[in-house]
From TrEMBL:
Annotated source species: Polaribacter irgensii 23-P
Pfam families to which the protein is assigned, alphabetical: ETF, ETF_alpha
Designated name of the protein: Electron transfer flavoprotein, alpha subunit
Keywords annotated in UniProt: Electron transport, FAD, Flavoprotein, Transport
Recorded GO MF terms: electron transfer activity; flavin adenine dinucleotide binding
C-alpha cells in the first residue's frame, strides 16, 4: 500500500505547492503507515523532492504530456496509482489540480476531498478538514471509501524539509491521443503568475482607468509580485480577464495581498480569504474591505502608491 503524491511542474520547474503536497503526503503516509511515492511529469530535476521526504520518485518524461491536458494527466496518475497500489492520492488545489483530481477519484472509485487544509484528524474514520462556503467556514469530511483522493489547499500545510536518500524510477507511459487540442496561454503581466505568487498587488475601479496601471505594475515589480484586479476592471477591458480575482475569478492564496482602490465586495473577498496578510489602500474609510484587512491605509492611491514605491526602492 502507498500514498501517491502528484508533484506538478510548469516548464519543468516545480511549483511551491508541489513541495507543500509532498511535505503533506509524507505526513499522511506516516499516519496510515504506508510508503510515500511521488509522481512527476516532465520535471527537470525530480530528485529535488528528496528534500521533502520523497523516498521514491517516479519520473515520467513524455513529449505528449508537455502541454497540460486534464484527461491525459488523470489517466497517467490513475495508471501510477494502480501500479503502486495507492490507497490515497494527494495533489494540489490549483486550477489544474482541481481539474484533474475529481477525474482521478472517479476512475479509482475513490472518495474525494478538495480544498483540504490539514492532516487527517482521524484515520478511522478517515476525516479531513476542508474549506467550505467560499472559504468562510470549514467542514470535517469523512471519506469512507477504501481509496481516497485529496486536493490540498495552497499555503494550508506549509513546506517542511525532511531530507531522505531517495530512489528515482524513470517510467514511460503510452499517452492515448485525447483528441483535445489545447493551447497554453500563460498570462503573466508582472514577472510572476497569480497562482504561484507570494505577493499579489491587486487594483480596482478606484484606479479610474487603464492608463493608471503603470504605478500598479511598478509596485508589483519592486515587490516581485503578480498583478491582479477586481471583476469590473477586467469587464471594462482595463486588464486581462486572467487577472480577475474573486468568486467568479481566480482564487489567491498568497502570503501578502495588497488591494488598492477595491471596495471589498463579498464576491471579491471570496477569492482572497486564503491569503495570509491583507493590506488595503482606499480613500474611503468606510470601504468594507477595511473590515477584512490586517493593515489599512486610508488615502488616495495616486499619492500613497508613488510614496510606497519610493520608500520600497530606498529600503
Ligand atoms: P468599486 O466598487 O467601484 O470600488 C472602488 C473603490 O475604490 C471604492 O471603495 C473607492 O472608495 C475606492 N477609491 C476610489 N478612488 C480611490 C482613490 N483615488 N484611491 C484609493 N481608493 C479609491 N467582483 C470581483 O472583484 N470578483 C469577482 O469574482 C466578482 N464576482 C461577482 C459575481 C457576481 C454574481 C456579482 C453580482 C458580482 C461579482 N463581483 C465580483 C462584483 C462585485 O460585487 C463588486 O461590484 C466589485 O468587486 C467592485 O469592484 P471594485 O471594488 O473595483 O469597484
Amino acid at each position: 500500500m502507498s500514498v501517491l503524491v502528484f508533484a506538478d511542474s510548469t516548464d519543468g520547474k516545480f511549483k511551491k505547492t508541489s513541495f507543500e503536497v509532498v511535505s503533506y503526503g509524507k505526513k499522511v503516509a506516516e499516519q496510515v503507515a504506508s510508503n510515500l511515492v511521488v509522481l512527476t511529469i516532465n520535471a527537470n530535476d525530480a530528485s529535488e523532492l528528496y528534500k521533502y521526504g520523497a523516498a521514491k520518485v517516479i519520473a515520467i518524461t513524455n513529449d505528449a504530456l508537455l502541454t497540460f491536458n486534464a484527461k491525459e494527466y488523470a489517466a497517467v496518475i490513475v495508471a501510477i496509482a494502480q501500479k503502486e497500489n495507492a490507497t490515497i492520492v494527494v495533489m494540489d488545489s490549483s486550477i489544474n489540480g482541481l481539474y484533474v483530481s475529481p477525474m482521478v477519484a472517479v476512475s479509482l472509485d475513490a472518495g474525494y476531498a478538495s480544498n483540504t487544509v490539514a492532516l487527517p484528524s482521524s484515520t478511522d474514520p478517515f476525516t479531513v478538514k476542508r474549506k467550505a462556503f467560499s472559504n468562510k467556514a470549514f467542514s470535517n469530511t469523512i471519506i469512507s471509501s477504501e481509496k481516497k483522493v485529496i486536493a490540498l489547499a495552497k499555503n494550508s500545510f506549509g513546506i517542511h524539509e525532511n531530507p531522505v536518500a531517495g530512489i528515482l524510477e524513470n517510467f514511460d507511459v503510452q499517452v492515448a491521443a485525447s483528441g483535445v487540442v489545447s493551447e497554453k496561454v500563460e498570462r503573466v503581466t508582472g514577472k510572476v503568475t497569480i497562482a504561484d505568487a507570494d505577493t499579489v498587488v491587486s487594483a480596482g475601479r478606484g484606479m479610474k482607468g487603464p492608463e493608471n496601471w503603470g504605478m500598479i505594475e511598478e509596485l508589483a515589480s519592486v515587490l516581485g509580485a503578480a498583478t491582479a484586479c477586481s471583476k469590473p476592471v477586467s469587464d471594462l477591458g482595463w486588464r486581462p480577464h486572467g487577472e480577475h480575482v474573486g468568486q467568479t475569478g481566480k482564487p489567491v492564496a498568497s502570503n501578502l495581498y495588497i488591494a488598492i482602490g477595491i471596495s471589498g465586495a463579498i464576491q471579491h473577498l471570496a477569492g482572497i480569504n486564503a491569503s495570509k496578510v491583507k493590506v488595503v489602500i482606499n480613500s474611503d474609510p468606510e470601504a468594507p474591505f477595511f473590515k477584512a484587512a490586517d493593515y489599512g491605509v486610508v488615502g488616495d492611491a495616486f499619492e500613497v502608491i508613488p510614496t510606497l514605491i519610493e520608500k520600497l526602492k530606498a529600503f
